[in-house]
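Quarterly update, task 2.4: magnesium ion-bound model.
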Amino acid sequence: MANAIVSLRNLSVSYENTVALEGVNLDIYDDDFVGIIGPNGGGKTTLIKAIIGTLPYSGEIVYAPVLSSEEGLGIGYLPQLNEFDRSFPISVREVVVSGLQRRKGLMRARYRKCDWAKAEELMARMGIAHLADRPIGEVSGGQMQRALLCRAVISEPKLLILDEPTNFVDNQFEKELYRTLRELNERMAVIIVSHDIGTVTSEVKSIVCVNRHVHRHDSNLITAEQLLNYDCPIQIVSHGPVPHTVLGFHDGDCSCRCCSCSEESSKRTSAEK
Ligand SMILES: Nc1ncnc2c1ncn2[C@@H]1O[C@H](COP(=O)(O)OP(=O)(O)O)[C@@H](O)[C@H]1O
Ligand SMILES: [Mg+2]
């Protein structure tokens, strides 16, 4: 049975003049593969930063013991690309191994031989071994995302969170990435933020809609009606012929844990006015 590894209770986050998240209740389970969707500025990155512990919040976040250790939170994180400082003068290899930083401290000399070996192995698997000595500022967007993914998983976290990893990358990378994430999901929970709702919903097991409020939807099928009910104004894209991923209407037969189908029609009516 799946166990909750992160539980948010009545979580709110505000910046100076903006309430970014309000009254959020959400559980993340150890076998989850969750896609986070929502409009620009809806609070997706804020939600993730609260979970990884880099933003002040009100309310409560409870982490299962498997995520907390003396070495810090056992969460791997791939930041949105515009948040990563590309001018930082370190090599691709050093970026990858820095995913062990909490464990090793800041000094490069403190990484062990096996840490560097693990970095080599990951870079080889992600097809960037030949770039290991290159300054991180000189590689392409896709190569950078590969390096950041290696960095996020090198500590073998129990939860991996990726914030818009498919921005600025080609389709080939996107396909590879989802294949890699499915493999990783056999041993860790995965949360991926994406604005590409068509692709992300076809790959994940559950969907979380974020637009100041947060709704968990325990299926990768989501309808335009449900998005409306989740106050998630984003365009819906059909997946075409792939059978289990076609976005269609459920006719109110949604069996997810979070949405109250009996309320749907009244909410919809008011939303449509
Ligand atoms: N550092 C910040 N200071 C002030 N407001 C911010 C900051 N970061 C985000 N916001 C605001 O919080 C809201 C949510 O932003 P964000 O979490 O980045 O959304 P998303 O990732 O869904 O695009 C937006 O209105 C944004 O302008
Ligand atoms: Mg964001």
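Highlight for this quarter: The longest strand covers residues 4-14.
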